[in-house]
Amino acid sequence: MRPPNIVLILTDHFRPDALGKSTPHLSKLASEGTRFEHAYSAAPLCQPARNCLITGKYPSQTGISGNQSPPLGEAARQDTFMRHLQSAGYYTAMVGKHHYIDRYGVGMDVTEDDAAIRDYGFDYVFQVVDDTENLHNDDEYTKYLARTGRLEQFREACAKSWSCPPHPFALDDTVDGFVGCRGVRFVEEYAEERPFYLNLSFIGPHPPFWHPGELQHDPDRMAAALGVPDRKGDRVKHAHYMDRCANIDHYVGRLLAALDARGLRDNTAILFTSDHGENAGDFGIWDKRYFYEQSCGVPLVLAGQGVAAEQRGCGARVSKALVSHLDLYPTIFHLAGIDCPRDPGRDGRNLLDILADTPGAAHDAVFAQLGTAEMVRTANWKLVFDAEGDGVQQLFNLRRDPQELDNLAGVPGYESTTLDLVQRLLTHRIRLTQRTQAKEEQRLQRVRIV
């Protein structure tokens, strides 16, 4: 059997708790493999997160610390997992949003960057940008609308989209429908003898949260936002957000059906995740640039070829292991059957080893970075430290306070816990970025513990 095809379905702003009754196709996919309950973005912001995912490294290592950052350096572009898949004989494709580079603010045709994106390790590139970014930039979607005589109508409606009016077109002609249909078409038309890697990258549920037709989710059934007074407006906005998630799920179902129809499903590994989550009104925040569970946490599903389904007869497998987006880098190498480059600066672990309880494979803590702030998450605790924000900003006992309503930073009685977690952060950062030259080991370190 040839190496498996690999499909990475990526979304934007998809909260981990958005998986459920509203996403039946993703729920079914999870039931055929594993859903990771405690998965985290390495950086809860688009450009840093996506560059972390493809390199297996943190923003402090990639140099991509915010949106509109400069591109990765040449050496890093040569070391993405897509580049290595290419070298191993895979045909690699990117359909949708990449956000590895960010030039959206200058009013351009982003397809002019296709060659630059191929340099990250893609044979095929089909670029689409966020709604509202396409008000002043052109991409494959705006070109499609122009060919069908609807671009002006779309841009007039999109300019008002933040208030969630009905989308002017049918579902297939929304930006997520356009991306989803193109991904399905890729599978239907694929004719190469070699295996493929497909990154199908949806725009949603990134705001604006507009969609075709009437609102399908009842605002009164939406959970009240955490940490703030219950407001009808938040519930309505959250309902629109969930409609957008459900629409993406529809295209996940169509993609899986296309794989089934081509007889490819049995030899395809499928990963589903989001670059980061969305607070969606929790703590009064409609954004992602925080380390709360719903913004730094991400959904993560792994299924298909090479991923054992649960054998214990007690339903879908849900892993409670702490995992990170950085774990996708070695996991994809494992799925493809190729050796992962050895690099002491990479933190990722093979998810299949974690699921198999391989000794030493599990994380005892996971980390995330954004700007001058860093997060450490252990089994029971989460601490956020900001070097430009007077140090420890947040300390949560997640076992006792899973909703993060009781910030213990600076509270008497938690000094030893705080010290331990800050030391973990410091040790982690030093081990990522600093090395001891062999001769100096004799003077600097009496005993080296690996």
What does this structure look like?
With 450 residues, this protein is of the alpha/beta class. It folds into two domains: 5-364, Alkaline Phosphatase, subunit A (3-Layer(aba) Sandwich); 380-444, no CATH class. The protein has 15 helices and 13 strands. The chain has helices spanning 24-31, 46-55, 59-62, 74-77, 81-87, 114-118, 140-147, 151-158, 175-189, 232-261, 293-296, 328-336, 351-355, 415-433, 438-444; strands at residues 5-11, 34-40, 91-96, 124-127, 196-201, 268-274, 297-298, 300-304, 317-324, 366-370, 373-377, 381-386, 391-397. A hairpin with a 2-residue loop joins strand 10 (366-370) and strand 11.
List the defining traits of the structure above.
alpha/beta; 17% strand; Alkaline Phosphatase, subunit A; 450 residues; globular; 2 domains
Produce a short descriptive summary.
The chain folds into 2 domains: 5-364, 3-Layer(aba) Sandwich (Alkaline Phosphatase, subunit A); 380-444, no CATH class. 32% of the residues lie in helices and 17% in strands.
CATH C-level class of the largest domain: Alpha Beta
Order of helices and strands: EHEHHHHEHEHHHEHEHEEEHHEEEEHH
End-to-end Cα distance, whole Å, is 39 Å
Secondary structure: number of strands = 13
